[in-house]
């Protein structure tokens, strides 16, 4: 995934990616920084979407005066806590609405936002439209476990899911992992509370039956403890369970690092030990952090939309932009058309 | 919780606890060992339930020939993978059915099993009956986070929950944490995917509204990442989500320990560091391991039933027996009568 210096560089294929400059807990500073970091890749051009004066001020603060970026003005800002439906109805000149409009008008190839997830999902669905056969788009996140990457979806777009939605998630996940990660016939696991078909809530039981007949490589139910064991390439679940899992992983990572830090602070002798082991602990914990892998993917809408974590720092934003670029290059959007 | 040697010991109040000798991945060896370990507490007398010849053989292997234990013969064994309803219908002379019968007939004060959870829950519910106001019993597990213990329920008895069931779980959890852990007005959190009342699946949204009016100390929605932060004493969720969470915690712990071990095996210089830090990592991970706190409690049935993890070793079995004893002493069963 690193940049390769080639002797004979092929003609540049610039991709334009719109970035929501106003969304996220650390907007606009970290967003702008992350956007600029992404332009280290000469193939990426960023369109910052948001209040022009705010963006210009930040660009100046970063000492930026070069090329490779542009600004699409949007006068309004949708706050993190706003009701998605009300927000996108009321604020048609917000960075989220304007950014998605840029995709629709073919002015950019993708939109990246760390803002109000519900608003991004709702506006993208309404404005870009759903792909054929998809009743509800899903948010997917890739976790980079040592045993291999796993795409988990839905991680929060649909708190209530019907069985057929889970089957659609399986199809979308399969295409994604094949296209973007080059995995042939990705193994699809259904998150449940036991291996047997009869285990799980009714929705999962029905989805299991449907998945057995679906044209995907369904390997059956998987449990929470299998997640990190590399037994599946795609983990299918509803957006409630998926989101709970995601946030629990974050919490556990924080707890562990906090405990280790506390132990070390009280005992200088441990400094050396922690210097050696903390990179290992960090590496494991970072596999729980989907922002390391580039944010959440909105799958099933007609366009490429990447939702970064609300708490994203500049590095997470840069990773999300890289994800968007990868999706563009691999033609994921077209492949999903069915 | 340790045993105290007192100068003047009060008259012994022996409690009889039935232990399913045939249930669990490591039955009967680890179960019998764990049962014998529990009898180090002179107040505990174990009734091993299961095939008499098998139990006797194991007791002999353990070099046991003393007092403090007895055997209740049950000729049949319910396997871990059997359908609960079919199993308890078909095997009326199984250790699970016989063990629960012992509670019903007041021959023991509690029953502990690491066997087929569904069979234990179903048989206990049908045979002992539910407490007043409880439509469905729940399995609860206590996690010993550094910030304080938290009772999580349901962790697997009810994969599908209605809002009023979640409210009942809140009531049962509140009584348990007050009675057994001495926490006044336990703080009840509802597991969701955002703090706002409008967040979460429909069931959770409805439960939130009902909990606001319920006679418990409801603190609102909590997220996965708050779990370890000590913000609630009771975490209410459905059995599907709860079980997924539980097993994910197990998997992450395993993954982390595995990665640390791998790093150390390849580098002898790290031995010293890991000697120092691994107890800390272990302590944190053990807080995810409810067997450390004594198995899962079946709340809402008219009797004390503790379900140990299928993978229980002797220590986990001993802990589960200790939990049962604590429940008996604190009069949890009576308190729940309402």
Concise summary:
Chain A has 338 residues and is α/β, with parallel strands linked by helices. Helices cover 42% and strands 17% of the residues of chain A. The first copy, chain A, folds into two domains: 12-129 and 301-338, Isopropylmalate Dehydrogenase (3-Layer(aba) Sandwich), CATH 3.40.718; 132-290, Isopropylmalate Dehydrogenase (3-Layer(aba) Sandwich).
Task: Spell out the blueprint of helices and strands.
Two copies of one chain form a homodimer.
Chain A: E1 15-20, H1 29-38, E2 44-50, H2 52-61, E3 69-73, H3 84-90, H4 95-104, E4 110-113, H5 117-128, E5 138-145, E6 148-153, H6 163-181, E7 187-191, H7 202-213, E8 217-222, E9 234-236, H8 239-265, H9 271-286, E10 296-299, E11 304-307, H10 314-329, H11 332-335
Parallel strand pairs in A: 1-2, 1-4, 2-3, 4-11, 6-9, 7-8, 7-9
Antiparallel strand pairs in A: 5-6, 5-10, 10-11
Structure, explained:
The structure is a homodimer of 338-residue chains. By secondary structure, chain A is α/β, with parallel strands linked by helices. Chain A is built from 11 helices and 11 strands. In chain A, 42% of the residues lie in helices and 17% in strands. In chain A, strands 3-2-1-4-11-10-5-6-9-7-8 form an 11-stranded mixed beta sheet, with helices on both faces. In chain A, strand 10 and strand 11 form a beta hairpin. The two termini of chain A are 27 Å apart. At the A-B interface, helix 8 and helix 9 of A face helix 8 and helix 9 of B.
């Amino acid at each position: 995934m690193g940049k390769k210096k080639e002797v004979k560089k092929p003609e540049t294929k610039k991709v334009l990616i719109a970035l929501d400059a106003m969304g996220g807990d650390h907007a606009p500073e970290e967003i702008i920084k992350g956007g600029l970091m992404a332009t280290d890749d000469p193939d990426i051009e960023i369109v910052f979407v948001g209040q022009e004066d705010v963006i210009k001020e930040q660009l100046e603060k970063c000492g930026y005066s070069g090329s490779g970026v542009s600004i699409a003005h949007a006068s309004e800002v949708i706050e993190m806590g706003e009701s998605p439906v009300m927000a996108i109805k009321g604020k048609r000149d917000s960075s989220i609405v304007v950014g998605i409009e840029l995709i629709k008008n073919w002015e950019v190839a993708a939109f990246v936002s760390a803002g109000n997830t519900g608003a991004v999902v709702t506006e993208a669905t309404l404005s870009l439209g759903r792909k054929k056969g998809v009743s509800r788009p899903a948010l997917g996140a890739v976790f980079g476990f040592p045993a291999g990457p796993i795409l988990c979806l839905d991680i929060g777009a649909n708190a209530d899911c019907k069985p057929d939605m889970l089957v659609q998630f399986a199809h979308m996940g399969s295409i994604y992992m094949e296209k973007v990660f080059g995995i042939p016939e990705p193994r699809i696991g259904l998150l449940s509370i036991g291996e047997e078909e009869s285990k799980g809530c009714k929705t999962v039981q029905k989805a299991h039956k449907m998945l057995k007949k679906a044209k995907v490589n369904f390997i059956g139910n998987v449990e929470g403890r299998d997640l990190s064991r590399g037994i599946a390439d795609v983990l299918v679940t509803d957006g409630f369970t998926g989101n709970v899992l995601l946030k629990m992983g974050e919490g556990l990572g924080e707890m562990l690092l906090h405990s280790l830090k506390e132990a070390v602070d009280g005992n200088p002798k441990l400094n050396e030990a922690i210097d050696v082991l903390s990179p290992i602990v960090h590496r494991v914990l970072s596999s729980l952090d989907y922002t390391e892998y580039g944010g959440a993917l909105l799958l099933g809408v007609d366009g490429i939309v990447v939702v970064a974590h609300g708490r994203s720092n500049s590095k997470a934003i840069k990773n999300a932009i890289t994800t968007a670029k990868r999706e563009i290059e691999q033609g994921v959007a077209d492949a999903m058309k069915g």
